[in-house]
Amino acid sequence: MTMPDPDSPTLRRARIAWCVYDWANSAFPTVIVTFVFSVYFVDGVAADKITGTTQWAYALSLSGIAIALLSPVLGSVADSAGRRKPWLAVFSAFTAIGAALLWFSYPDPSFALYALVVFCIANISFEVAQVFYNAMLPTIASNEKIGRLSGWGWGLGYMGGLACLVLLLTVFIQADPPAFGLDKERAEHVRIIGPVVGAWFAIFCLPLFLFVPDTPSRNVPLHVAARDGVATLIATIRKVKNYRNIAWFLCARLFYVDGMNTMFAFGAVYASGTFGMSTEEVIMFAIAMNVAAGIGAASFGWIDDYLGSKKTIVIALTGLILFGIPLLLVETKLWFWIVGLPLGLFMGPAQASSRSLMARLAPAEVRTEMFGLFAFSGRATAYIGPFVLGTLTWMFDSQRIGMSTIVVFLGVGLLILLWKVREPA
To answer: Is the peptide bond before 177 cis (omega within 30 degrees of 0)?
Structure first.
């Protein structure tokens, strides 16, 4: 697809709409995966905190395996068929519906399996959708502005997660009585987060489908696209050694994204279980963390375009490690706040600059496929981090020991990135 005039109103509108999708979808990882539903499941649905932490860890591991298998294959199929929007629409819909169905996760251990199955389906759909969403980035931004747009999108995403958290906190969780007469005894004021997140996602994703141009269809039947796509994927994996920088970058990302995803998935569980923070306190911390993360993602977008994506990722990972270690050692809520908030500044840049670095490294003719491998690198070992954390937490009856594995994953990814990845000028 030929890119329109970079200053045309059509392309400017497309960039805004693309960023708004980040605003829409960030409610799911922020509210469901990280800060609210995960805590509710461990504290309110599971039999006890240790059992809940272990079950949540294994659910993330299983969904991570499915994502690792599906993402590169579907990315390759989309490259063969041409269009990306239909795939994005399907998986976005599954995410929104899955989130809404979490309403039926009643506060009883007998509903633990239901909650985990529905969460896994929604989580898989969310992550697979990112393959097609991320692949749109280079079609609406020139190479020298990719980092900026990626950072702005991620920053707006953090603001979207923040706005959704504030809405839930003020209207439902802290309100007395909660809106719509919800019953706190049955945890309805917390379970409502599922339908709210589903509606939030469905409404705010619409601008992307209205204003972002799609690559043209190649009029290839689905079964032919699937056959050709898988064949192309296999060929790409075989010749990935010819893309040396991409191969090493994806290898580094295997480790540091696994560490980051585990941090996101268990940060609130750690705050609740180890520091005794209530749901309201966790959400207040989440709001402050999202503000810091949004500022970091948006401001580091300029640094990305000035210094390069690799250096930006290095800075972000170093910050995560330097603040992550003392977070494992502090004993009080006050110090958890003092050390934890600066950590947020480095979360967004590591993610946004990874996306922009992949966009700069990937050849245009296999871009969606490469973003499928990009998603694969973020999920190929995604089951290992939660599995190791859950197992160590269960073995030692300690969330601190389980969380310590995150720093190891971040450190290994940083070392590979420093030694092996070369960013083109």
So the answer is: yes
Rounded to two decimals, the pTM is: 0.75
Strand, helix or coil for residue 339: helix
pLDDT tens figures, 73-98? 777 777 777 788 999 999 999 999 99
Q: How many domains does the chain have?
A: 1
In a domain, 200, yes or no: yes
Residue 177 CB contacts under 8 Å (≥ 6 apart), including other chains: 184
Domain contains 295:
yes
* Count of residues in the chain: 425
User: Cα separation of 224 and 230, whole Å?
Assistant: 10
Structure token digits, residue 417: 């990135």
pLDDT in tens, 229-288: 677 667 767 766 677 788 888 889 888 988 887 777 677 778 877 788 887 788 788 778
The long-range contacts involving 360-364, CB below 8 angstroms and separated by at least 24 positions, are 360/143, 360/146, 360/309, 360/423, 360/424, 361/243, 361/245, 361/246, 361/249, 361/423, 361/424, 362/138, 362/246, 363/243, 364/138
